[in-house]
Amino acid sequence: MKFPKPNTLKQIAALIDCEFVGHEDFPVLGMNEIHVVEPGDIVFVDHPKYYDKALNSAATIILINKEVDCPEGKALLISDDPFRDFNKLTNHFKPFKASNASISSSAQIGKNTVVQPNSFIGNNVVIGDNCVIHSNVSIYDDAIIGNHVTIHAGTVLGANAFYYKNRPEGYDRLKSSGRVVIQDNVDIGANCTIDRGVSANTIIGEGSKLDNLIQIGHDTIIGKKCLIASQVGIAGCVVIEDEVTIWGQVGMTSGITIGKKAVIHAQSGISKSLEGNKTYWGTPAQEARSEMKEMANIKRIPEIFEYIKSKK
Questions:
Q1: d(CA 228, CA 244)
Q2: Both 38 and 120 in a single domain?
Q3: Is 218 among the residues known to form the active site?
Q4: What is the average per-residue pLDDT within 246-258?
Q5: What span, in angstroms and rounded, lies between the C-alpha atoms of 271 and 294?
């Protein structure tokens, strides 16, 4: 998320009431999670395991819960609770704004686009030309939808990321300030849920087609011309490259990449990145051909035992 205008290190420190290391006029342009940070961004870190990764990332302002040596050309915000203070900044720069109409006055809807009754279009949503938004679709604030997009009934675009910190008093949610971006010629089935990015975008690429009852987590990027069948669940921060086919009830863990033109058979469980141009099946997923050969050989074990007994 980029701020509406540049801020200084001193201004940001005052907002969250913390100490800082660096020149008070050091420029602060936005805030992002570590996988999408750019120079001028704040990134937060609250665990020693990730200190080096945050300090050496592209971010130039590190919100951290320990006094450490500041890398050259960067600045530090020293906080007793970076998670809490990252949320404070989200609330300040991107506060929740309640709607008072089913279609916000700030929404932009293109030519020949149809919005069926009982749908909700939030603040600052942009919808392109020649789209069809069926009944009971909810499109949360700031979503961007291209041209020739069809979204079927009951789908929700832009719900919060499933991202929590476990505290003694209960789970504390990391607030979401990102967007959902749907590119041109995408079809989305009924009762799908596509979560917004925490601070960046969840993206569905041009020409991709989603069946009914699909869940796509925050900050996931789906490439062009992908096919995803019913009841697939994709966690956050997954990259699915172009022309991937995913059949029904596949589940994927977070932070992995599925290579271009991969095919994943139904009910597979994906726990690691997969190369493109191959077909996969099973849990954990393996190349389908080798997995099926193994199963065929296992079925032959009784036959092999009988053969061995006959030779004795």
A1: 8
A2: no
A3: yes
A4: 97
A5: 20
Phi, psi angle pair for 292, to nearest 5°: -70, -35
Q: Which of 156, 162, 212 is nearest to 187 (CA)?
A: 212
Are residues 52 and 177 both part of a single domain? Answer: no
Judged against a pLDDT cut of 80, whether residue 70 lies above it is answered with yes
Nearest to 192 by CA among 172, 209, 170, 215: 215
Q: Find out whether 66 and 76 touch, Cβ atoms under 8 Å.
A: no
* Domain region containing 21: 2-93
128-132 long-range contacts (CB < 8 A, ≥24 apart) are: 128/184
80 and 220 assigned to the same domain = no
Model confidence over 181-228: pLDDT tens digits? 999 999 999 999 999 999 999 999 999 999 999 999 999 999 999 999
Lookup result for tokens 């199963």: 295
| Active-site annotation holder among 134, 152, 218, 265 | 218
Q: Residue 296: helix, strand or coil by DSSP?
A: helix
As a whole number of angstroms, the distance between CA 91 and CA 98 comes to: 14
CATH code for the domain in which residue 32 is found: 3.40.1390.10
The answer to whether 61 touches 9, Cβ cutoff 8 Å, is yes
Q: With bands split at pLDDT 50, 70 and 90, how would you rate the model's confidence at 312?
A: low
183 burial level (CB within 10 Å; 0-12, 13-18, 19+)? buried
Residue 299 lies in a domain: no
Tokens 């961007």 belong to 144
How many domains are contained in the chain? 2
For residues 56 and 124, membership in a common domain is answered with no
Token pair for residue 38? Answer: 């750019």
